[in-house]
Amino acid sequence: MAAAGGSSQADEVHGQGTQELFAVPETDDSEFYQQPFEPVPAMHLSLPFIIDGLNTETSSRQLSTAQNILKSVKQTPIPNRPWIFYWCINALAALGEDVGGYNDRTVASLKPLQHKDGGFGGGNGQMPHMASVYAVVLTLAITTYHASRDLSEAERFKVYAESFGWIDRKRLLQWIRKTKLPSGGFKVNEGGEEDVRAGYCALVTLALLDFDEDELKGDASLGESPLLDGVLDYFQSCQTWEGGIGAKPHAEAHGGYAFCVLGALCLLGEPGEVLNRHMDLGRFISWLSARQYAPEGGFSGRTNKLVDGCYSAWVGGCWAFVEAGANGAESARSSVKVNVGSMWSRKALVRYTLTCCQSPRGGLRDKPGIHPDYYHSNYVLLGLSAAQHYYYYDDRGGSALGDKSPFGHGFCWRASRNVPKPSSGDGDGGGWEEGLVQREEDRVGTQHPVFNIPLGAEAQLRAWWRLARQTAPDGEAASD
Amino acid sequence: MASYADSDSEDGLDYSTNPAWADVTPLPQDDGDNPLAQIAYSPDYALAMSYLRATMAANDHTPRVLNLTAEIIDMNPAHYTVWSYRFKTLISLDAAKQLDTEELTWGWRSELDWVQSIARQNQKNYQIWHHRQLIIDHLGDPTSERERTDEMFGLDSKNYHVWTYRQWLIRRFGLFDEEELAATAKLLEEDVRNNSAWNHRYFVVFGKLGAGKPAEAAVVAEIEFAKKAILTAPQNPSPWSYLKAVLRKGDIELATLQPFCESFSPILSPDEIKSSHALDILSEIYDEAGDQAKAEKASPTLYFKYHNPVAQSQRPIR
To answer: For residue A413, what is the enclosing H or E element?
Structure first.
């Protein structure tokens, strides 16, 4: 649904065509990035405590806005274009849109971003950057999944080969090696800053491109050491005196970095084991619980900071890991398998999302009074998905341990519409939480808790890698 | 000659007619066929980037690169590639002893001043502070860097990037000193809820120890510091967390806090409860002492019953 008219100024800048280019409803999107923020109203005074639906009108505006942004972005000098692809594509997918139609153009758009020495930059000719690499892999995983889901297996694998076969895995791995620090941490690029974001993005990339133990071990004769050496200890050292997790050792506890560390740990181990071994889970839970504020219902990223819709994903996303970790700890203590159930106020987050994060003109936002943007649109929806679904770890038959990839545990996440109420700890089922979704059309899609892509896309991608590498054992999958 | 960070000129640099750039053929951006989310850059920006791509391809680190990168950074301060290339150029010019010469009136100090001015305008930026870190690391001299970060805290005392840089500075130059401790005290005097300052204080006092034991005097002093802060705002979570962390670090039992906590939250007089954090600790203390009935009573739910409806549904876990 291309909005009529469009901005003539935008057309001028492009010098190509008319309404295909940049047309957003009502106002010009470049304002999102340029206008100073308005003061935040006292939301608890002005908002009724009722559950609104996910406004179909505004969410479809969100859709059309995102679809338009995928055509062109006007003068937004974001140095990391793959983020725009990922935020928009994933937000559209979460809203139930089929994004398969974007697959061919996505591939064509990403090819010029691959650096000759490996990895992806934020734009053509730019140095590789870990966040670009991460966003590229996620975007391709989503569009390919949608583009191939109704096809026969043979046809499906052909689509995957075209989407992923051109990625230079070997050089990408060499580049990631150059970002690794002796401490076990990673830098976002060569000569760039160190933080756990880089480590998380690196591990997600390696997992989704199906690198195995042998490849990661490296060639000692070339002076390479095993890539994952020291990584767990490094992540562990980022837990702070508050119980939360910071960007690197000694940095202040912060929801975004906490998500990165928990996600990364859950790629490397079974949550019930790895989170109890490499964290003080009890202190982390105290800190995480304190991130949800009353009366807003949303999450803050740090102690004594304001609620922001994007932490719905970063803090909200931690709960699936924590619940799995607590199940592990409680089960180890008792002789039976314990399910502690839901540990956070999902209803409060749903309420904050629906009443405060929907911009009347489309898109989702930090809080009332602040412009929506594509970053917040995606992460607010991811948070809503975390609240509406129960995500749980289930390694059916212990497949993760036998896998030759060290990331097998990342492929054992499932989702259920039934959210178990908190149990009293003695294993009794307390029934299901009610009222999280008022109308089924308000439900957003299931998302993989570690990878932040539609649940199922990760398994499909891995299935293709396994087949491709069987036929081309050197790991370089051929694309026809 | 124009300043090497001349980013304020209205018309940008006219590369196509400028003799200094006559030898360079600009390299346009390849976005692929029928691209998604093609960014409609301004003509100035697109042209400057085309010259940068050509410059990088030729591995050109001559003084003109400083002008070019400054112009791009001014338009797009999060452009990590440009920052990185600018730093390499500065290092290369420094090695050739070309900085701060008659031909090039630009050096590390002018660079640092310019970076500070960019930082003031772009507070949520990773690259600026990393660039500064690379320079100060290269110079090996932290002089007046604390003042530079203090200035930024005047604009936003919780700026994560600036705090990250400040911690690096303290560790790199071993500045775990009285001045640094006083700086955190001053920030907390201005805003006792500044959790970033609490975090930095913990780092200054205990950060260099690793797993080592702290001096008893330091532990006692920090306990007193936290208690004083709690008195000014009993429902402020930061000093309570700090207090617990200091006790843990000093191997002191939580039970020693019982009288202090009870003074804020007498569980038998719920109307007089002033702090859920005190209740939280009391609940833990009673629990450890085996007094289940009291522990139940001291659950923070008691506080939220009066103060905080949403958090009631949060299930504390032990």
So the answer is: strand A413-416
